Model the fold of this input.
Amino acid sequence: MSSSVSFWERIGLRSNGGVGDAGWGRTLVVAIVSLIYFLPVLFIIFTAIKPQALALSVPPTLSPTSLFGLIPEQFVFTPTLENFGSVFSRIMTVGGSPEPTGFDRFFFNSIVIASVSVLLALIIGTLAAYGFSRYPLKGNDTYLFIILTTRMLPAIVVIIPVILMFRAVGLSGSYFGIIMLYTAFNLAFTIWMMKSFFDELSPDVEDAARIDGSSEVKVFFKICLPQVIAGLAATFVFGLILTWNEFLFALLLTGPDTRTVPVAMNQAVSSGGRGTDWTLLAAIETLFLIPVFLVTFFLQEHLLRGVTFGTVRK
Amino acid sequence: MSTIEIRKITKIFGDFTAVKDADLSVAAGEVVCLLGPSGCGKTTTLRMIAGLERATAGDVIIAGQRMNDLPPEKRNIAMVFQFYALYPALTVGQNIAMPLHHEGIGSAETAARVNKVADILHLREVLDRLPGQVSEGEKQRVAVARAIVRDPNCFLFDEPLSRLDVELRHSMRGQIKGVLSNLSKATVIVTHDQLEALTMADRIAIMRDGLIEQVGSPHDVFAKPANVFVASFIGTPQMNLIQAQFKGYSNGKAKVAFDEQDVDLSVNPAVAGLKPGKLTVGIRPRAFSVVPSDTRDTIDAVAELIEPMGAETLIHARTKTGSDIRVVVPRDKRVKTGEALHLVPDPAQTHVFADNGKAVRA
Amino acid sequence: MSVTPATQSAPTLFDISADNWRLAIVVGLVISVLAVVTLPVSISFWIVGAMAALVAAAFVVNAYRRRYYGGLLVAPAIAVLFVMNIFPLLWSLGLSFFAYQSNQQTIRFVGLNNYIKVLTNDLAAPANWNALINTAMFVVLTVSAQMLVGFLLAMLFAKQFPLRKYLLILVLTPMMLSVVASGVFFTYYYDPTFGILSYIINSLGDGQFILMSNKAGAVAGIVFADAWMWSPFVMLLVLAGLVSVPKYLYEAAAIDRVSAWRRFWTITFPYIRGLLMLALLFRTIEAFKLADLVILLTKGGNDTMTISYHLIRIANEQNKTSEGAAISYVMLFMVIVLTNLYLYLANRRNQGA
Done:
């Protein structure tokens, strides 16, 4: 009588599941690739915990620990958290004392502006996508294409009329203005993505519900929406990432109260005339990365839930 | 030679044992059905033969060669999946031709073989359609066609008819049986439908909770069930299983007591060796004769519900203490509700199961 | 019952009735254009807003009368897009027909002059054409790189394996970086004196390695940074397709002894084709607007000027606002043609299979 579990499976390197699963061998390969891909980001994070003096040293200091002697001493620095403190309170004038930088406000602004506009785009856009999908018109493709073209012009072209527009209506520097603008930005992608997902749903379940007397509203919420959660998650994540980091419009359309972090980051780093303040920049960016990182991490499972995309008809 | 043999096959998922020590031999040209309720391990067993699951222990031997360490690609088997698994982006013809690419034959011969198989299964007209454009029954035939277009070591079917409606099932059963009988390869069919098993199989292996309870011809599992589970699983309407007290054996009859009745039953002589105690008596509904009067040999019950079934009538009767007894009589035997019935079971069809559930039989 | 086709008894274009939303759209557009061209911004903006409200009202009446709910669902999105996008687009389109420089007060109507000047003028044209060609080059290079890398990454993550969740987020992080931060740090990486890249190469060979010393190096540097940041976008979309392939198809393929190559093309690819097209579409549109990385890394030096950066220079630094508008509409036209081509090809393949 023989045991049929192979050597590789027994030490955990290959999976013993069926077709389509992989074991720790795959994990190893992917881990190496992922870490290499992540290195530039890692460097930024490390720079954030570097003492300021070492920022531009040659040879570049790379690691916070010497990993038990694997890395030679010259590449190691001792980590510090002082840069994170500087984000929020810093010496701004030569010879002065530390003052609050207002970054707490800027972070707050970024969070509010990005999340509200992405959510708004998600709501309005999903409704519109449902409309385009379920009540198609003869010119549907044209309308959708026109929506797409709103994304095609570079910001610089529309920035002047938008500034003028905002000033005329008094929206300059207001939350409402920039949120509405970002919502418009995210609508194109939201509509295209969600329409693809809605197109994929089979109408049988909906028709059954309609026959049972459900109103259209109920059909939408109870039957259609739950099936497109993967699409909603993906659209939310993408929209968030794009809006979170947007710079040009934020620069010109937000005021001192509503400024977002990318604008503030640019200011904080390039002012002072002493060249780029690397550790400060790294610290701001590291902090700025955290919210998006967390949101993406928690929505990952929904992202991968797997919905076909109109590519294969049943 | 196309044979399948599994020896002491076991599959454990974490702390759940799906299949335990299963033994089975399938000869060339033989059709064996793995039959059982859902969760009994029959599909897992089939997948281990296919190589889609790795056996935790035991041997899978196909065509005389031990295949445990070989992936499905190297086993040269054909399988029809429950969900058909047709490639959605390829036409029916391309689906059927898919296994032939490996064999490196030219396109002319591929086309010839595909056409031949399409003719056998009446798929000629739909060869250029996509799987999404054909009916459920046609999809099923395409899956079968894809399996028989090649020359595999054996055929494996996973619940092939479960998604078809009753009429289609009926006709497909016959078609598949006809196709298989021409091909003389070992075949294993997994099903939960006993009618399918009884009509299509040369032998049936009944499984429950990972164990093979009995292997035998359809006749054997019907007429000589090895235990209570098999007895109750095979046969519609279900066999009557009566819990009784065994009092003793004399004059060729067993004295049993249940439901405030003492009955003398003609049973298999092996029952004589039993010690007095609990046992189960199994009698199929069609195994009764109705006699006019109450004797020591009769089981007495009152007819409660009459169900005409056409050529026969199904009577639900109740004993004095409320046990349910199902009796099937020919339609000209008229019975009224409330009528007292005196039933004598046919000795050849009276089964006795010991306290451990096993049949007591010489 | 409720999805009655709106074409049944829909009013033709010129019926005056409260629910003729097509007419409302046409009227709205016409009046908007006139207002934008003739009136000062503060007034024309409100007129445009009023037109948008008119169209919305037509949809509402349509929904009420004809049970055509599609309009209701679509209206809010159209309204937001109209106000936020159409108005600025119309404005700058109109501007391209005038000679307006933001440091002057005068506006002269010049018709197609700007466009002719942009496309044929020998003084400015080389810079414009150059920028266009550079942009085309960048688009091809960076989009190809993103599609390739994104696809490979997706294949890597396709199967389920331990720690998959945590490794995936590592690869997604580059996308989340602010362009400012990543651009600045990439200048550091590429820096000849302090940069890591130079340090490694210098210690391997001899002499100073300056990535940005010639066009090829500069382009490589920009493309590398851009592709690095955006390949995860492609990866995510392709991955969504890959995980949607039913497992039993792969099992059937194993039993049918299908080769890996064929398995990919006949089973996997159909599930990801649409998503690949979507990724291609959006990344191309974004790639045409490439400017931030160029500004940060090379400031356009070594002949890496892209059209978007060129526009910024023209509009901001040289105050040639009208010309900038004309250039951008030329570019818009090209992008529209290109994307139409994509969509046409994508639809053809969809019907083909």
Remarks:
- Chain A touches chain B through 13 residues (CB under 8 Å).
